[in-house]
């Protein structure tokens, strides 16, 4: 049986049991594991990667970047790209699908007086895309 692991932030953390069962129905030769946690950024995923990698997933689907851009807990772009590299290296035997940070609803993005903007999220999107292209995760 092949293994597919969802890894990252709230985009995947909200994937409940019903959706996992649907994935497994669509992919009958695959066990699906949801290893995502709302609020996680690349620092969190680097820390947990050695443990999650023990699952030896055939496919790793990653969603990260928006929390890295969040002004109230921002990870520098340099650290973000370095963290992506560390995550990819932890799963060197897995095929990796990377969901780049997506635009947000800026009106809802307030937290403790800070405002996350699409301009800032795009910087993280572009940095992740550049890295992914460089290592051939993206065409």
Which class best fits the helix and strand makeup? Answer: alpha/beta
| Gyration radius, in Å | 15 Å
How many distinct domains? Answer: 1
Oligomer: single chain
Q: Portion of residues in helices? A: 40-55%
Instruction: Indicate the CATH architecture.
Output: 3-Layer(aba) Sandwich
**Low-confidence runs:** none
Give the CA-based shape: globular
Widest β-sheet, arrangement of strands? 2-1-3-4
The CATH topology is Rossmann fold
Largest sheet: 4 strands, parallel
Number of helices: 6
- What is the CATH level 1 assignment? Alpha Beta
Helix-strand sequence:
EHHEHEHHEEEH
Mean pLDDT: 91
Please render the helix and strand layout as text.
Elements: E1 2-8, H1 10-13, H2 17-26, E2 30-36, H3 42-52, E3 59-63, H4 66-69, H5 77-90, E4 95-99, E5 110-111, E6 114-115, H6 118-134
Parallel strand pairs: 1-2, 1-3, 3-4
Antiparallel strand pairs: 5-6
Question: How would you describe what is shown here?
Answer:
- The protein has 139 residues and is α/β, with parallel strands linked by helices.
- The chain has one domain (2-134): SGNH hydrolase (Rossmann fold).
- 43% of the residues lie in helices and 20% in strands.
- It contains 6 helices and 6 strands; from the N terminus they run E-H-H-E-H-E-H-H-E-E-E-H.
- The strands form 2 sheets. It has a 4-stranded parallel β-sheet, with helices on both faces. A two-stranded antiparallel ribbon has the order 5-6.
- Helix 3 (42-52) packs parallel to helix 5 (77-90) and helix 5 crosses helix 6 (118-134).
- It starts with a strand and ends in a 5-residue tail after the last helix.
- The mean pLDDT is 91.
């Amino acid at each position: 049986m092949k293994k597919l692991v969802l890894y990252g932030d709230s985009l995947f953390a909200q994937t409940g049991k019903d959706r996992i069962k649907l994935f497994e129905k669509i992919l009958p030769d695959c066990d699906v594991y949801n290893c995502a946690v709302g609020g996680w950024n690349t620092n969190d995923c680097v820390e947990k990667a050695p443990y999650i990698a023990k699952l030896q997933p055939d496919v790793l689907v990653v969603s990260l970047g928006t929390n890295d851009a969040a002004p109230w807990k921002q990870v520098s772009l340099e650290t973000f790209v370095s963290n992506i590299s560390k995550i990819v290296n932890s799963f060197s035997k897995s095929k990796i699908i990377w969901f780049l940070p997506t635009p947000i609803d800026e009106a809802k993005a307030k937290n403790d007086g800070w405002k996350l903007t699409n301009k800032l999220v795009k910087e993280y999107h572009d940095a992740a895309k550049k890295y992914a292209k460089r290592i051939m995760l993206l065409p």
